[in-house]
Specification:
Blueprint: H1 3-16, E1 18-23, E2 27-31, E3 34-38, E4 43-47, H2 48-56, E5 60-62, H3 67-81, H4 93-101, H5 106-133, H6 138-141, H7 146-167, H8 170-174
Antiparallel strand pairs: 1-4, 1-5, 2-3
């Protein structure tokens, strides 16, 4: 499965997860048999996509993780774990970060993007090395984002196929 498809699927799933939404005014919705009622100041646990609509329409505020802090922490941890290990990232880390980045002004966006690219390049390099020597096990899988898992498997499979192609004629030569 391509990373883009996996990412879209998980982005939809992330949008379905509940998130706290603090209402800034009384609301009462009944759309397609989905009923939502709440009073000013009330905190509702709603699917993230509904909370986003409420926030976009200035009816409340969606509780979102501080992705800038999470990015800084991830970058710091990645630098500390060493060359042949990866730190643990939330499976939806890149999805959440990209959603957050869509809301930023140009200067903030550029700063966050440069940190993201530094983290990405570090992890990509480590994953290529690991995928060339190790099969994806549950310990490693639990440290990767959904996109990184697809990338790892692709590198691993391509590396094994390349090795098979190189070694394929060797057995015929040694039997002569």
């Amino acid at each position: 499965m391509e990373i883009e498809n996996v990412e879209k699927l998980h982005e939809m799933g992330y949008g379905l997860k509940n998130a706290k939404t603090t209402l800034s005014q009384d609301i009462k919705f009944n759309v397609a048999k989905v009923k939502i009622e709440g009073s000013t100041g009330e905190i509702l646990n709603l699917p993230r996509w509904i909370g986003k609509i409420i926030a976009d329409n200035k009816l409340g505020e969606l509780d979102s993780p501080d992705m800038v802090t999470e990015l800084k922490q991830a970058l710091s941890k990645e630098k500390m774990v060493g060359e042949y290990q990866v730190s643990t990232l939330d499976p939806h880390f890149y999805i959440k970060l990209k959603q957050h980045m869509r809301t930023l002004q140009r200067d903030d966006f550029n700063h966050i993007e440069s940190m993201l690219l530094e983290l990405f390049r570090m992890r990509r390099g480590k994953l290529v090395k690991l995928a060339d020597s190790t099969k994806l096990n549950s310990d490693l899988y639990n440290k990767l984002t959904v996109e990184e898992s697809v990338f790892f498997k692709t590198i691993y499979d391509n590396s094994k196929n390349f090795e098979t192609q190189i070694r394929s004629n060797l057995n015929e030569q040694s039997s002569n």
